[in-house]
């Protein structure tokens, strides 16, 4: 089930609980999970890269694996606050679940009773949509596609401890497109690139402004939604034209490792937020 929490102070909170893997209260896994989440929250207090993973417990199936990923423009204090909030909310919204993910605009926190480290997972997908009014939709899609592909390659090829990148492009002389992409840093460069390009297809095809998965996310807006002074964004190029270099080819499709269960129930939830006119479309594919 995907849920948006209107009472949360953090932006765009959603969670995923498959409701197929439960543990009993006061069990060994429950104790390991508590220790895991405490360890991740403590680590976030001193994290400079906005990412960490950890394991608690010695013997399967009671080992708990977890990680957090903060948006690349956040400072340590903001990242720590988000992870700390997620630590509390994920247990409330997914009680007794062996597998859970919670997303905010600022960070993601997830855990499982199976190793999730260095494994690309493109499901489930959260779609974020709002009303974007542009004068030339066809041209906007062209600029958007170029922007997302560029930022995907920048993020996946980042030499820093973060697989995070932003870029700005002029859509018109008065409108600028802001785009962000990021992956969990434990992914290989090719895996990160493939994950982000799969989101590129979703954003272009479905005309939504953002998509989140357990391994990567991408978003664009016509306003600065990240801290532009905290990131080294690419200088905006001239207004895009219909002619230019063709986009880089898409990598081959990713195959799902054997043993993974990718059968998801399709759930659609549409929520209208009066303050910003934003619709959140959430469903599994």
Automatic annotation (TrEMBL):
<dbReference type="Pfam" id="PF01657">
    <property type="entry name" value="Stress-antifung"/>
</dbReference>
<feature type="compositionally biased region" description="Pro residues">
    <location>
        <begin position="236"/>
        <end position="255"/>
    </location>
</feature>
<feature type="domain" description="Gnk2-homologous">
    <location>
        <begin position="122"/>
        <end position="225"/>
    </location>
</feature>
<keyword id="KW-0732">Signal</keyword>
<feature type="transmembrane region" description="Helical">
    <location>
        <begin position="264"/>
        <end position="284"/>
    </location>
</feature>
<keyword id="KW-1133">Transmembrane helix</keyword>
<keyword id="KW-0812">Transmembrane</keyword>
<dbReference type="InterPro" id="IPR002902">
    <property type="entry name" value="GNK2"/>
</dbReference>
<keyword id="KW-0677">Repeat</keyword>
<feature type="region of interest" description="Disordered">
    <location>
        <begin position="236"/>
        <end position="259"/>
    </location>
</feature>
<keyword id="KW-0472">Membrane</keyword>
<dbReference type="InterPro" id="IPR038408">
    <property type="entry name" value="GNK2_sf"/>
</dbReference>
<protein>
    <recommendedName>
        <fullName>Gnk2-homologous domain-containing protein</fullName>
    </recommendedName>
</protein>
<feature type="domain" description="Gnk2-homologous">
    <location>
        <begin position="11"/>
        <end position="116"/>
    </location>
</feature>
């Amino acid at each position: 089930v995907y849920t948006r929490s209107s009472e949360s102070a953090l932006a765009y909170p959603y969670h995923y609980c498959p409701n197929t893997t439960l543990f009993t209260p006061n069990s060994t896994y429950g104790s390991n999970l508590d220790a895991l989440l405490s360890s991740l929250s403590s680590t976030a207090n001193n994290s400079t890269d906005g990412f960490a993973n950890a394991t608690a417990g010695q013997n399967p199936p009671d080992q708990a694996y977890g990680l957090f990923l903060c948006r690349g423009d956040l400072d340590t204090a903001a990242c720590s606050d988000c992870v700390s909030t997620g630590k509390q909310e994920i247990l409330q919204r997914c009680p007794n679940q062996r597998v859970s993910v919670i997303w905010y605009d600022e960070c993601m926190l997830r855990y499982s009773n199976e190793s999730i480290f260095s494994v690309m997972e493109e499901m489930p997908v959260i779609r974020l949509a709002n009303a974007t009014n542009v004068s030339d939709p066809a041209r906007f899609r062209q600029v958007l596609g170029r922007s997302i592909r560029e930022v995907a390659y920048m993020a996946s090829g980042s030499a820093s401890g973060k697989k995070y990148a932003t870029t700005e492009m002029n859509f018109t002389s008065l409108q600028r497109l802001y785009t962000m992409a990021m992956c969990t840093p434990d992914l290989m460069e090719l895996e990160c690139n493939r994950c982000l390009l799969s989101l590129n297809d979703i954003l272009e095809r479905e005309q939504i402004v953002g998509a989140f998965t357990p391994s990567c996310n991408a978003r664009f807006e016509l306003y600065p939604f990240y801290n532009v002074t905290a990131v080294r964004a690419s200088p905006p190029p001239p207004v895009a034209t219909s002619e230019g270099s063709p986009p880089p080819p898409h990598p081959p499709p990713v195959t799902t490792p054997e043993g993974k269960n990718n059968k998801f129930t399709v759930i659609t939830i549409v929520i209208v937020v009066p303050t910003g006119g934003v619709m959140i479309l959430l469903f599994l594919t």
